[in-house]
Amino acid sequence: MAFPHKHLIDIREYSAEDIMMLLETARTFKQINERRMKKVPTLRGFTIVNMFNEPSTRTRSSFEIAEKRLSADSLNFGGSSTSTVKGESLSDTVETLCSYKIDLIVVRDRHAGVPRKIADISGVHVIDAGDGKHQHPTQALLDLYSIWEAKGSFENLHVGIVGDILHSRVCGSLIPALKIMGAQVSVIAPQTLMPARPDVLGADYASNKLDEVLPDLDVVYMLRIQQERLEGAPFPSLREYNQLYGLTQSRDKLMKPDAIICHPGPINRGVELDSFMADHPQRSVILDQVYAGVLVRMAALFLLLGGSNDGFDA
Ligand code: CP
Q1: Is the same domain home to 202 and 128?
Q2: Of all protein residues, whose CA lies closest to atom 5 belonging to ligand 1?
Q3: Contacts for 36 with CB less than 8 Å, ≥ 6 apart
Q4: Domain check: are 186 and 255 in the same one?
Q5: How far is the CA of 278 from the centre of ligand 1 (A)?
Q6: Distance, CA 106 to ligand 1 centroid (Å)?
Q7: 139 three-class SS
Q8: Is residue 182 domain-shared with residue 168, that is, in the same domain?
Q9: DSSP strand E in the chain: where?
């Protein structure tokens, strides 16, 4: 079956069937990543621009690895080394890049809405790699993939997302994605880091008390405290935040025996997550999430550029 989308910008445009097709394609790509020669000619002849105007470790490196493993040609572009610092507009930059007959732009930007604008200007495929406080759809897909691998299904699954709900683009995509797949979603945060209407994001339940919700959760998804986006001192100190909302070793006993721990990275160890929990051999799937980043990004590139779930050229 052909994939019915040109872009991956807003996860809310995807149905449960579309998301499942992506996850199943990602699982198919796992076999390539686990053999000695980790490269297939599937996207040979396609040119992809990775435009990162904001720092990234995981998203940028996993897109680059995904493109290399699919044999696409890629151009890494962005930040202070481009002519935007000389005043060139986004439109002129995108039109310049499109003159090279490129096929897809992966974009991260600190401004919400930039991926949609690039899609409108360029006419090529666009993947949002994180825009401002808005969305981060490939992060949501790799989170879903990791949860699906660990739990087998989204049915009757209670996922709690803990931390900076207000500033989180991860939440902007993950909450709707989990709801599309049928999971129950709670958000837990201090009042100052909670949106006025958590239900607008699609969450079923909101709480300011981690210890009340923790025993019911199958998946505990800890968000990073984004010190670069915080305004107005939303909590008295990082130490107090850790005591009230951090996943500390002492909270291990409050969790279900088979509950898992997720985090999008980068982690502030000792703030939202203690090292004991971040590195917990049974519970933590954080490095599985990083690996899933390569698999789901390979799947997204493949499907958006015309691949189908009937198979690929391996
Ligand atoms: N999770 C995430 O987007 O990480 P990076 O900022 O390192 O890409």
Answers
A1: no
A2: 56
A3: none
A4: yes
A5: 16
A6: 14
A7: helix
A8: yes
A9: 47-52, 73-77, 104-109, 125-131, 158-162, 184-188, 205-207, 219-222, 260-262
| Pair of tokens at residue 191 | 């009042």
Looking at the structure, do residues 250 and 296 belong to the same domain, yes or no?
Answer: no
CATH number of the domain that 95 lies in? 3.40.50.1370
Closest atom of ligand 1 to CA, residue 108: 8
Q: Identify whether 70 is part of a domain.
A: yes
State in Å: Cα 60 to ligand 1 middle.
8
Cα distances (Å, whole numbers) of residue 158 to 1, 179, 235 = 31, 11, 27
Residue 2 falls within a domain, yes or no?
Answer: no
Q: 260 C-alpha vs ligand 1 centroid, how far in Å?
A: 20
Locate the ligand 1 atom nearest the alpha carbon of residue 265 and give its number: 1
Residues 126 and 255 in one domain: no
**Distance, CA 313 to ligand 1 centroid (Å)?**
30
Using CB distances shorter than 6 Å, the residues near ligand 1 are: 56-60, 130, 139, 264-266
Tell me whether residue 251 is in a domain: yes
The domain in which residue 79 lies consists of 11-133+291-305
- Per-residue pLDDT for the chain (314 aa), expressed as one digit of tens each? 789 999 999 999 999 999 999 999 999 999 999 999 999 999 999 999 999 999 999 999 999 999 999 999 999 988 777 888 888 899 999 999 999 999 999 999 999 999 999 999 999 999 999 999 999 999 999 999 999 999 999 999 999 999 999 989 999 999 999 999 999 999 999 999 999 888 888 999 999 999 999 999 999 999 998 776 666 667 778 888 999 999 999 999 999 999 999 999 999 999 999 999 999 999 999 999 999 999 999 999 999 998 766 655 55
Residue 60 falls inside a structural domain: yes
Tally of domains in the chain: 2
R_g over Cα of the chain: 19
Question: Tokens representing 308?
Answer: 């189908």
Atom from ligand 1 closest to the CA of residue 61: 8
Task: Specify whether 115 is located in the same domain as 146.
Answer: no
